[in-house]
Amino acid sequence: MKLLCLCGAYGSSDKFEVQLAPLVKELRSDDTAELYFLHGPVEAFPPEGFEDYFGRGPHFRFIEPAKTAKGSSDILERIRHFPKGATAEDQMRALMSGGIDMPDVDHDYGIQSAQEALDYLYHIMEEEGPFDGIIGYSEGATVAATLILHEQKRWYAEGIPPMIKCALFFAGWPPLSPELNRIVLADECDLTITIPTCHIIGSLDPYLAGSMALYNICDMDNAYLFDHAKGHTLPRDKETVREIGNILRDMSSII
């Protein structure tokens, strides 16, 4: 099984490979998977106050935040005060208020940048694939899920078979619609990620609502939910990594 691995915002492919080193070792121990690490095409600079958190550059993103008369509309500059809500979807709507719901004024995930990110991924998939599955962390999970929905749309509309057949999401966020003009929330539309997925969440993650909103749009018959009981981080302890490896082995056997 060959997996395409997408890092989080302000990360890089090299750093992501280091962060996932325990899982890489687990999957290579019995040739379960070959991993190809990728960062986004946009060079980026962390928001004020996050410089130390993301470490030394260069830093990259898949989707460039839109610029407005008020400055950047980057969602990462708003999550310092993550909103509360009755459901994960309510929290995401509150977070996006004034953002993606108002595309002519303050469009967080600009359609052009999102399309360029998809074009970039399809090019990598053609040149370096085929890939059987995808791994995404944080922004990388959002982009991975967006790609999966876009592949599903192409299959229904154009008969182009999807390449990605399973997904592993770490601390994810809900994807953009195939039209790239809104986020997909389970209580607003019927779009569903139908391939097998595994969602690695941390119950102490201050942005847990994003992970749950992503989980909620996946086919529950094919979606694993795994809590590593920590924050917005990648699990590295031996037992957790072994369990995640076994989940991927199970998914590999059914795709």
Keywords:
255 residues; alpha/beta; six-stranded parallel sheet; two-stranded antiparallel sheet; globular
What can you tell me about this protein's structure?
With 255 residues, this protein is an alpha/beta fold. 37% of the residues lie in helices and 16% in strands. It contains 9 helices and 10 strands. The strands form 3 sheets. The protein has a 6-stranded parallel beta sheet with strand order 2-1-7-8-9-10, sandwiched between helices. The protein has a two-stranded antiparallel ribbon with strand order 3-4. Helix 2 packs across helix 9 and helix 4 crosses helix 8 (208-215). The chain is globular. 44% of the residues are buried.
DSSP strand tally: 10
Tell me the Rg in angstroms: 17 Å
Report the span from N to C terminus.
10 Å
Low-pLDDT ranges = 68-73, 98-106
Percent range of helical residues: 25-40%
Q: Describe the main β-sheet briefly.
A: 6 strands, parallel
DSSP strand content: 15-25%
List the helices and strands and how they pair.
Blueprint: E1 2-6, H1 13-19, H2 21-28, E2 34-38, E3 42-44, H3 51-54, E4 59-61, E5 67-68, E6 71-72, H4 88-96, H5 103-106, H6 111-128, E7 133-137, H7 139-158, E8 166-170, E9 197-201, H8 208-215, E10 223-227, H9 238-254
Parallel strand pairs: 1-2, 1-7, 7-8, 8-9, 9-10
Antiparallel strand pairs: 3-4, 5-6
Helix pairs in contact: 2-9, 4-8
Task: Kindly summarize this structure in a few lines.
The protein is of the alpha/beta class. The protein contains nine helices and ten strands.
